[in-house]
Amino acid sequence: MPRGFIIGELMNNLKINNLKFNKIINLIIENNGIPFLTGGYIRDYFLEIKEKDYDIEVYNITFNDLYSLLKSLYPKTKIVGKKYPIILLDNIEISTNNNIYNSINRRDFSINSIYYNLKTNKFIDFSNGLIDLKNKIIKLNNLDNIKKDPIRIFRAVYLYSKYNFHIDSKTAKTIKNSVQLIKTEKKERIFNEFEKIFNNVDNISKAIKYLNDLKIFNVLFSDFNFKNNILFSLNRLKKKNTSIILAILFFYTDKKILKNNLKKITNNKTLFNNIYSLTFYYSHFNSLYNNFDLTKLKRIVISTNFDNLLTLYSAINNINSNNIKIKKILNNYNMKKSDLSPIIQGKDLLKYYPNLNQKYYGKILKILYNMQLNNLFNTHLKGLELCYKLINNRYIFINKI
């Protein structure tokens, strides 16, 4: 390990204005613990970026004793992680260690391994993370760390694309040679990393390109078809969310295997349906774009998220809101929006049918919304009458619900 150095005297004390955080730190110190703040918070502190999450390592207190202390103060405190247990309280993660050198060696990258002693108010950097921060370099503390936790490949991609950093050559080579190991990780961990990239990286196309260059999509998904149009579409994306990004990513993949691919990274059925409906109703929106018809618009609105579909269509076709045809669609949508909003909602079922099994709510609401769009009712009272008939009609209840 490189020779470490203390840089505390060169810096002003780090001030954290978080009541819960400071209360926890005071409790640790009062019980002879030595708390260090490290990880992303310190990295972003030097990058002058506000970070909301805290990663604390505590020395001189056992894990169980620390957990008992915090649990007595905050009953919602819980333990997460099997391989490396962590005490979690809201956005504060706390672990215990016996040897700071071994702890630093286990951390992923040098820029995430700068420590701040919250008792002595000194910064400590044993892996030259500050130098790498200054030079915008992502470097593994230990080249074996990727093999121990392949998810760190995603972390490297995140840092590379979010901060526009460079990846150290040895680190890049190790990452490239370790990509196949991602298949051994649980899908929940993989999906969490995708979401972190999707939700926090501004230059999302840069992240997707690097993931594709590493062949990660080919490792995770079958018959994955990557085209440069994916990157162009992502660059044009005006609104980001996981459903839209994945819809673009899988847009050129056979729709028949779309769900099978998604199942390899998540069990979220709502997400499956959202993405599938966006890719499926893309052609319907294209028909609407070329030949506007109010019935087509209603069918799209009832079947998928209109705003997301509009965003997807515009990004793929490089169309902006000033486009004449898009303006016409939007004007009609906005004029009819009140008519298109569901008149009967879940709160009505809860109020008037509290004893009804809630597993039927979604299907009942969908039937009522179809009836509304087909002009079978346009008032709340008439909607409730039809809801009553629907629930009490044995044939409909059995065959439609």
Automatic annotation (TrEMBL):
Span of domain Poly A polymerase head: 97-138
Alphabetized Pfam families for the sequence: PolyA_pol, PolyA_pol_RNAbd
Keyword annotations from UniProtKB, A to Z: Magnesium, Metal-binding, Nucleotide-binding, Nucleotidyltransferase, RNA-binding, Transferase, tRNA processing
InterPro entries to which the protein is assigned, alphabetical: Bact_CCA-adding_enz_type3_sf, NT_sf, PolA_pol_head_dom, PolyA_RNA-bd
Keyword Transport: no
Record domain tRNA nucleotidyltransferase/poly(A) polymerase RNA and SrmB- binding: where: 164-224
Cofactor(s) needed by this chain: Mg(2+)
GO terms for biological process, alphabetical: tRNA processing
Top-level taxon of the source organism: Bacteria
GO terms for MF: metal ion binding; nucleotide binding; nucleotidyltransferase activity; tRNA binding
Family: Belongs to the tRNA nucleotidyltransferase/poly(A) polymerase family.
Protein name: tRNA nucleotidyltransferase/poly(A) polymerase
